[in-house]
C-alpha cells in the first residue's frame, strides 16, 4: 500500500478512451444521422455525447454590500468569486445556485430572479447567476472557501477576481443598481481564459 494517489485534476478538453457502460475502448467518429464526431462504443453501441456544463451561482446582497468568497480550491486558488459551482444531476438551476451559496459561504439567502446568463463556449460552459437577498449578515464558509465577506462597491478586489463571468456580472450589477433596474443580461464571453 505504498502507491500514492496522483494529483486529481479536471480534464479539459474532455476525452473518453473507454466506454463508461461496458469498459471497451471507444472510437471517435460521426454517428449515422449526426453531423459531429462522438465517442462511440462499437462493443455495446453506446454513444457518449458531451455537452456544455452549467455553472450556477448568486449575487448575494446584504445592506448594499456584495458577498464574495476567496477560493480554497483550484482553479484560481486564493482569488475572489461570487458563490457558484457546477450544477448537480437531479437539481434545478435555482436549487444549485442556493446550494452553492450555502456551501461556499454559509449565507442564508432568499433567491431572486435570474440575473446573468453567460455563454463561455471555449471552456464548454454556461454560467448563470441569480440575484439574492441575504436574510442576515452571518457567514460560515465551507471547505471550498478560505474566507467569505461582504464587500462595498468601493472595496471590490477587481484585480483579484477569479473569473471573467464574475467580473462582468459585478460590473453589470453596479451599473444596474445606479439605474434601479436589474437585468436579466445574456451575453457571450469569447476567447482567452
Ligand atoms: Zn460499451
TrEMBL record:
The keyword Hydrolase applies. Its EC number is 3.6.1.22. GO terms for molecular function: hydrolase activity. The keyword Cytoplasm does not apply. It is an enzyme of class 3 (hydrolase). SUPFAM superfamilies: Nudix. Residues 51-174 form the Nudix hydrolase domain. Its cofactor is Mg(2+). CDD domains: NUDIX_Hydrolase. InterPro entries: NUDIX_hydrolase-like_dom_sf (IPR015797), NUDIX_hydrolase_CS (IPR020084), NUDIX_hydrolase_dom (IPR000086), Nudix_N (IPR029401). Keywords: Hydrolase. Pfam families: NUDIX (PF00293), Zn_ribbon_Nudix (PF14803). Gene3D superfamilies: 2.20.70.10, Nucleoside Triphosphate Pyrophosphohydrolase. This is NADH pyrophosphatase. The gene is nudC_2.
Amino acid at each position: 500500500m505504498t502507491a500514492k494517489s496522483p494529483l486529481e485534476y479536471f480534464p479539459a478538453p474532455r476525452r473518453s478512451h473507454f466506454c463508461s457502460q461496458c469498459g471497451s475502448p471507444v472510437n471517435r467518429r460521426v454517428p449515422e444521422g449526426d453531423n459531429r464526431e462522438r465517442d462511440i462504443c462499437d462493443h455495446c453501441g453506446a454513444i457518449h455525447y458531451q455537452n456544455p456544463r452549467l455553472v450556477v451561482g448568486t449575487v448575494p446582497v446584504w445592506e448594499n454590500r456584495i458577498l464574495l468568497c476567496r477560493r480554497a480550491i483550484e482553479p484560481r486558488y486564493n482569488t475572489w468569486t461570487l458563490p457558484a459551482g457546477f450544477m448537480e444531476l437531479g437539481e434545478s438551476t435555482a436549487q444549485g445556485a442556493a446550494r452553492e451559496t450555502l456551501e461556499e459561504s454559509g449565507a442564508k439567502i432568499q433567491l431572486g430572479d435570474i440575473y446573468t446568463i453567460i455563454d463561455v463556449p471555449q471552456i464548454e460552459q454556461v454560467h448563470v447567476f441569480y440575484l439574492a437577498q441575504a436574510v442576515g449578515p452571518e457567514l460560515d464558509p465551507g471547505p471550498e472557501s478560505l474566507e467569505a465577506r461582504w464587500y462595498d462597491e468601493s472595496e471590490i478586489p477587481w484585480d483579484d477576481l477569479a473569473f471573467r463571468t464574475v467580473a462582468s456580472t459585478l460590473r453589470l450589477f453596479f451599473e444596474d443598481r445606479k439605474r434601479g433596474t436589474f437585468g436579466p443580461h445574456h451575453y457571450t464571453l469569447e476567447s482567452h481564459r
